[in-house]
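Hey, I'm writing a tutorial for new members on how sequence and structure tokens pair up, and I'd like a real worked example in the thread rather than a made-up one. If someone can provide the structure for the chain below, I'll link this post from the tutorial.
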Amino acid sequence: MREIIGNARTVRELLRGVKYSIDYYQRDYKWQKEQIRELVEDLTGKFLEEYDPAHERRKVADYSHYFLGSIIISKREHVSYVVDGQQRLTSLTLLLILLRTLQKGRTEQVNVDDLIVSEKYGQKSFNLHVEERTPVMEALYEGKSFGLQGNPESVQNLYQRYQDLEEIFQNELRETALPYFIDWLMDNVHLVEITAYSDDDAYTIFETMNDRGLSLSPTDMLKGYLLTNIEDTAKRAAASIHWRKRIQELNDAGKEVEPDCLKVWLRSQYATKIRERRKGAQPENFDRIGTEFHRWLRDEGASIGLKQDDDFYRFIIRDFDFYSRQYLRLMAASQQRIPGLEYVLYNAQHGFTLQYLLLLAPLHPADNSDVIDKKLRLVARFLDILLTWRLWNFRSIAYSTMQYAMFLVMRDIRGLAPGQLAQRLHEILDREEETFASSEHLRIHQQNRYALHRILARLTDYIETRSGQPSRYLDYVSEGKGRYEVEHVWADHPERHEPEFHHPADFAEHRNRIGGLLLLPKSFNASYGDSTYEEKLSHYNTQNLLARSLHPQCYERNPGFLRFLNENHLPFKPYAKFNKAALEERSELYRQIAEHIWRPDDLLREVNT
């Protein structure tokens, strides 16, 4: 083996003016939202232990340092090829781009540009250079839109992870703390760069570090701790077999499912405190379970009832078995519409991964299947109402925004029986000040387009199913061929509405209100999107029931819909012309439909069904 060099480097030293390449045979960028979240939580959590807004920025040099792992580089022909660590380097680059974007317009800025790009002979290029990623990286760097269709999966994944970063990055770090955090990230976060001067040597190091089983995962260490404390040989063997089978099922469900399940289970049942967002605050059990669940359980086992041989045996055979099976059920319900668990899918489609914590919290291994399903429906329905209220009022449902509030709910509903659970969740909703009634002017914009698509799908599906038609919700939210898009009733021609709107901006604001939106096939928008309302009206009559309700023929020989109107007293009416007053009436109609779909009192009714 030739010369091998290992150096500890700060993020600034590692990325500033240095070019890294990735060979074509290396795997794609594969990180998912959970890995991005863990990276952000680890970094920001460590920073916030030290941060004090009263500090001058130079005091950041005295903050604690953080080790982010190692990367392995193969150096050949003056080019540095990343053999191991490209997932971290790529994610770091995305984070730096976000930090650059967050600084725009600020008087006090920290220059991160040369950690992202470098210039030679007047040509800029990214310091982590992958040819197929260049267009999306340029779009992110310049803050421009980027179309995903037709791009490789790795490029789409990279773009989605940047969106996740935007959502996850804490609001408390976006203001005064931002330059402090950037300074700390660049100069107090370290990686070890291991450089070899041949591919053979680089891959030998990689295999030694990763493939020889010398490094146990947190799950392996947890298993060892639990089994060691089962003294009965036969029980230990049975528990070991059971553990392996359950872990295999989790691993078969996808990468990172196994550790995610363990964290969610342990947090949902045992977390009692969460770290405060202030200088010097220490990680509490919620935080420790998220980063070192094996050590937390070893330290706190006795406090959660792990004292004797039978306790450890039951923890594997009963508890782990029960919660891991429920976790897999919820994963399946997040990906497809399962009768009785539909609300889990609705919440998942808003990207709300915190729901698993709340869904498992009230469950107990002694619950029968009916009780389990009732509890899951109650919690999922509660979340569905809460999330929709927030979205209707332009509020964030991002992980960082919702984490603390959801922790409190999780702790509050732990182990409750269905009746108590329904009452408690109803009380929480009663305390919410922002409902459908508190926002009269819901409108679509770039940040809520995806969420409003889902809300419109629910409104449309509700009207149709209550009118006796089969559900087409999955068609409305499908991303495949023939997908549906949000369609404006008014084409983008303010001049057509000049008698009512003297300024284009006023027209645009009204045009984007929810009452002027429909969910229609993409092909419809391509064919008729620029037409006048009068030209489109007859075509609306061939579409879903919400669109058809604009046409007078929808109210003729349509017994299911007419029965629905008679029972629910909703202010549906046809419109020969669609002016400002019509749009406002439709907005009020949509609000009333929403109040029928998302009703807190349904939680109390659910208990008695």
